[in-house]
Amino acid sequence: MGIRGFVPFCPWNWCLLLATLQCCGASSELNRSTDSSARRELNVRYAAASSQPAETISVFTLDYDYVQIPYEVTLWILLASLAKIGFHLNRRLPGLMPESCLLILVGALVGAVIFGTDHKSPPVMDSSIYFLYLLPPIVLESGYFMPTRPFFENLGSILWWAGLGALLNAFGIGLSLYLICQVPAFGLGDINLLQNLLFGSLISAVDPVAVLAVFEEACVNEQLYMMIFGEALLNDGISVVLYNILIAFTKMHKFEDIEPVDILAGCARFVIVGCGGAFFGVIFGFISAFITRFTQNISAIEPLIVFMFSYLSYLVAETLYLSGILAITACAVTMKKYVEENVSQTSYTTIKYFMKMLSSVSETLIFIFMGVSTIGKNHEWNWAFICFTLVFCQIWRAISVFVLFYVSNQFRTFPFSIKDQCVIFYSGVRGAGSFSLAFLLPLSLFPRKKLFVTATLVVIYFTVFIQGITVGPLVRYLDVRKTNKKESINEELHTRLMDHLKAGIEDVCGQWSHYQVRDKFKKFDHKYLRKILIRKNLPKSSLVSLYKKLEMKQAIEMVESGVLSSTAFSTPRRVQKTQETKRLSPEDVESMRDILTRNMYQVRQRTLSYNKYNLQPQTSEKQAKEILIRRRNTFRESVKKGHSLPWGKPAGTKNIRYLSFPYSKPLPAGRDMKVAEFTDHDGSDSELPPITFNTHSPTGTIQERRWTPEVIPMKRLHGAGTPLHFGYRRNAGREEHLGRGGRAILRPKPLFHAVDEEFESEEESKEETPAFGSLLSSELRPGGDCNVSHSPLLQRK
Amino acid sequence: MGSRASTLLRDEELEEIKKETGFSHSQITRLYSRFTSLDKGENGTLSREDFQRIPELAINPLGDRIINAFFPEGEDQVNFRGFMRTLAHFRPIEDNEKSKDVNGPEPLNSRSNKLHFAFRLYDLDKDDKISRDELLQVLRMMVGVNISDEQLGSIADRTIQEADQDGDSAISFTEFVKMDNH
């Protein structure tokens, strides 16, 4: 007579996981009722018949109430994840609509089920849970993944646009709706000005980042990208601050007699809240960066430190009634640069993925909750209010975009075109933020809360679905190039060459931006901050470990095949001198063109590709690796042949930046050694050209070939007891001295290098660190790489 | 830093550079500060390592050749004048220049000079011809590892075939110019 509820429930559990939600919802509902009644029965039984132990202790029990909340939350998240998997399996869908669409649909589905089974949904969404647990991860993620260099270069424009735009939108929409409410025909007379303003502030919170993935393929220039990003970043903060201020006003019950002093106080408070929050964030960022300096022995807690400090900054700011959102954003931005250099590779990856995961979970929950509340009885539909809300949202966004950008274009070096402005206007998609704020309106102060919630939902659905789906085609339409002109192979090759050339020259010229300020900051940063915040011995960076792996692979292959990869270069020279040109058929030409188009390297793009929901390795990273490997091969090959590089320059000048060492101990003056380092796996040492000369006795160790992946600490290899300091010492005077033949090329083992550089590379100034870091995207660790990639040639500081 | 840079660059030098290259005063100053920031040795010239320190050039497929283009034949150092002269090739042609001075020396950023610059990227041995081999090398640099050598060879053949008009299986400068005019 015991409860046998477990058995029938088991297959339903599996069904659920196979995404037949209906069964699951219904069954869980049924089980719950069965279970509670069963349990009551059991208790009664137990009380009544305690003298029969064999029958009253049931073997299987079910306690659904105990796990209800986490269970359902987990189910929701899993369901959303399954939906996302399905979404991404289809190649075309992600480019067609933003992922928010998907999440909303899933939410609506769950809502429908819950509504259908008359189940009471778990209280996921209430004010404290939202503000304390759901919001911080989302904001942290957007702050962390924001590209800092473009952000700060465009800081003025971004603040102008995001800050003023949010305010303009909020007040514009609020006031217009208030005017609408005055019209008696609509029955909205009881909504006063403050409530309208509040509604305006929460509806103006856009989430444009969600649509970035949709028009990623179209050429979105970096400035535009940053605008959208910056807006998303600051927008949440600003609207929450505004929301809180207006709620405070509403609570004061002074709707009708708000004095100017109140308004001034409100403005002052706005500024203080914003700046104070950012200030606290920066402080916490520095503290956590400092702490990560000491965590090399216990790298498992590094992610913990990062997350806890960010969260702490949020909480501390909230305690003081400052803006926690801006605090956590500032913390993430500050912390990122230093933490990335300090933490180990695995911690770095963990942090990134965990952040994405947390923010994804939060957003999923919010969207599902949104879906749940869509399908329910908590609606109040008022045609006028809702339609006018929609209309005003669009109108005011258009006004704010065009007016504000018109003004800021006067001051920018790169003005935004009308096309860019249209894209920004159209990407004003609302997201989870607005819904949360609407949902959390206190009912006591807002008797017509349901109306607001309904209106918000309508706006969100409209913008996400209609605008989200059409923004892609719109952008592609606006960005029309002369694509259909058939180019000959020549033209294609030549065009690409010119693009690369232009990009290269641009890079030589550097960034045309607030160079002086940035330079000053970098100097300050390098002189003081980095010394304090970055640890001495850096862990391996991904580029270095990648090189190690690739090197080894190459070396092993070469040993096995016995042939140098460089022979590929020489074959064409010999073979096809006298071959006559064949006539090629059009199909061949076509296929050739296709092959060429598909395989030519992309020109360096300044725009970083960002995906809100996913971390993907960049294709440019692969391209960069190939290029770097090839350059090294070319160099090695030419050196091996004993002659200088193809263009007639001495081999020594072409240096391997990524693996050369900083030079911390000056060599004896008599031996002007310019030692170029390479990680080099040559087939055999005997082929080393005699140009190598090395005064250090440890040369002998070079002869040993080591293929093992163990990293040999440099110190042990050199009896001198000092760490190996092969450095490429560049000294202009000496360069002339040595002349061409005198360049020494030392080819020590790669394994050594990989270790040592981390020790030493820190010593040198790496001014270009942030640039390189941002260039290679978040996938490659900027910290170690930068040190690696710049020939830390100079002794000078 | 800006003001410090401009005091180091003497006014008459600035004027000369301005006349020679056509950059504006502020552009020259700005480029000078860039030059000095690249010049780690602080001896007024840049060497190849200074260029190689620019990370974006490292992963530019043509990075090495671009760097090399800055250095005059046989030299390892480039001073600011030379730097500016090379960069001047890429200054956009402004409308007010087009009608100027037909009789004077051709401005550095004329179309023909730009093309010469690009041609020099291909033509390493400076024989004024792009041979199949040189083309192959450039192709190899610009294309990923997925293309086999044979395919690359046939692409190079086809390229030469399309452009070559005098039948010498190489692309001369005039043919190059014509190719670019399409």
Q: Helical region count of chain B?
A: 12
Give the overall shape of chain A.
Answer: globular
CATH topology of the domain at 127-478 in chain A: Na+/H+ antiporter like fold
Secondary-structure-derived class of chain B: mainly alpha
Helix content estimate of chain A: 55-70%
Order of helices and strands of chain B: HHHEHHHEHHHEHHEH
- Residue-averaged pLDDT of chain A: 66
- Total count of strands of chain B: 4
Provide the gyration radius of chain B in Å. Answer: 19 Å
* Helical residues, percent of chain B: 55-70%
Mean pLDDT across every amino acid position of chain B: 76
Distance between the termini of chain B: 45 Å
Tally of helical segments of chain A: 31
Cα(first) to Cα(last) distance of chain A is 84 Å
GO molecular function, one term (chain B): calcium ion binding
Protein name (chain B): Calcineurin like EF-hand protein 1
Subcellular location (chain B): Cell membrane; Cytoplasm; Nucleus
Family (chain B): Belongs to the calcineurin regulatory subunit family. CHP subfamily.
Short description:
The complex is a heterodimer of chains A (797) and B (182). Chain A has helices spanning 6-17, 21-48, 53-56, 64-89, 93-96, 99-116, 127-144, 148-153, 155-182, 193-203, 222-251, 260-292, 302-319, 324-342, 345-374, 383-409, 418-426, 432-439, 449-478, 489-509, 515-533, 542-561, 567-575, 586-599, 619-640, 699-702, 714-717, 732-738, 750-760, 769-775, 782-789, and strands spanning 675-676, 744-745. With 797 residues, chain A is an all-alpha fold.
